[in-house]
Amino acid sequence: MRTLLSGGIVVSMDPAVGDLARGDVLITDGVITEVAERIDAPDAEVIDATGRIVLPGFVDTHRHTWQTAFRGIGADWTFAEYRVAMHGTLKPHYRPEDIYLGNLLGRLEALHSGVTTMLDWFHAAQSPEHSDAALAGLRDAPARSIFCLGGEFGSPDPVDGELRRIRDGVPDGGLVTMALGLRGPLLTTVDVVAADLKVAAELGLRASVHVGSGGANGSRPIAEFHDNGLLRETTTFVHANGIDDDELLMLADAGSSVSISPDVELKMGFGWPMTGRMLAAGVRPTFSIDDCPSAGGDMFATMRTAYVVQRGLDGSLNSRDLLEFATVDGARACGLSARTGSLTPGKDADVILLRADDPTVFPVTDPAGTIVAAGHPGLVDTVLVAGRVVKRDGRLVGVDLPALQARLLESRNRIAAAAGIALDGTWRPPTESE
C-alpha cells in the first residue's frame, strides 16, 4: 500500500533531506520511501497536504498517563501537595478499569495533539491487574507507546518478577514496547537500583529515573550513579533540576539522555528547566509533559515554555533546537531513532500535518518559528502512525470519544467520592508534613 502526502510545507528534521517549501512524502507499507519536491506515484492514495506543514510526530519522553481523569485539578499544587493528592489520597482508590481508561484517554489526547510516540511512566502498579490494565489502555490507542513500568516510590521490593511477566507478553517490533522505571537513589538504595538495571539489561530494556538536586541534604544523584558504575547510555534522567556542573559532564560522557518537563518543573518549584545547561554540557535535551492534573498535555506549550524561559535566562536556543528536542532527540532517548523522529526514507511514517492556513498562524513565513512560537493543538489536522491515518480532518479515526469520555467521568467521580474530595475547585491537599 502506498500513500502520497502531496504539496505540503515539509519540515523533515533530517539535515540530509532538508526542508521543502513545497514537497511530497511517499509512504510504502507504513515506511517513508521518498521525500522530494514532486513525486510521481499514480498508484498511491493521495492526501492533499496543500496549506499544511508536514513534519514528524512529536515524542514525549515521560508522562504519568494514568492520572488523566483528574486533568487540571492540580494546577495550583506544589509538588508536596501533588504527592499527597495523587499518590496518597487518590491512587489507593484506583481500580484496574480506572487505570485503563486514564491510559487510553490520555494516550488518545496526546495523539490528538500530535504526539505520535510517548513513554508512559507508570507508577500505580498496585497489583498485576493494574499493570495489565495500563498496558491494555496503551495498546487500544493507535499510537507508538513505551510502557515504562515503575516500582512503588520508596519501596525496596524487587520488580524483576513482574517486569519479566509483562515483558513476555510484549513482542519486539510492535507499536507498544517496554522500559523500566527506576526508583532511583533518592527513593531506594543503590543496591536496588543496580539490581533493577541488571534485569533491564537482561531483558533489553531502556530505563528512566526521576532525579533532582539534593537541596539541603546535599545529595548528588548523578554522581551516585557514576560512582557505583550505574550510568548507562540507555538511561533517561527525568528533570535533573539543579544538578552540579560535574554531574552534567558525567551524563554527557555516559551518553545518557534527559527528559525536561518545563511547565511542571517551574510551577512546582523544582527549579529552572535544565534545557540550556544540558545543551551546553553536550547533552541533547528531550521534552515531556509529566502529569496532566498539573499541566497541559500538548508539546506546543511545552516547547514554548522551555523556549521563552531559556531565552529569558541567557538568550540561547532557537526554534529549530526546540523542534529537535521534541522529535529526533526524543526518539533517540527512547531508543527509536532508527524508526521515528524525522521524515527520513527508511523510517516508519509517524507524521503530523498542521494547518498553515489557520488564522492563528497564517501566513507561515518561517515554519519552525511558527510552530514553536504560535503552535497549538488546534492546528493538528492529520496524524499518521506507521503510515496509518489515525486522525483525519481534525478528528480521531475510529474512536467513539463521547462514549469513552462518559466512562472516564464516571471513573473520576467514583474515585473522588471514595477519596472524600470535592470536585468544585475548593479542595486542596495537605502537604506531607501537615
UniProtKB/TrEMBL annotation:
<dbReference type="InterPro" id="IPR011059">
    <property type="entry name" value="Metal-dep_hydrolase_composite"/>
</dbReference>
<keyword id="KW-0378">Hydrolase</keyword>
<feature type="domain" description="Amidohydrolase-related">
    <location>
        <begin position="53"/>
        <end position="390"/>
    </location>
</feature>
<dbReference type="InterPro" id="IPR006680">
    <property type="entry name" value="Amidohydro-rel"/>
</dbReference>
<dbReference type="GO" id="GO:0016810">
    <property type="term" value="F:hydrolase activity, acting on carbon-nitrogen (but not peptide) bonds"/>
</dbReference>
<dbReference type="Pfam" id="PF01979">
    <property type="entry name" value="Amidohydro_1"/>
</dbReference>
<dbReference type="InterPro" id="IPR032466">
    <property type="entry name" value="Metal_Hydrolase"/>
</dbReference>
<protein>
    <submittedName>
        <fullName>Cytosine/adenosine deaminase-related metal-dependent hydrolase</fullName>
    </submittedName>
</protein>
<dbReference type="InterPro" id="IPR050287">
    <property type="entry name" value="MTA/SAH_deaminase"/>
</dbReference>
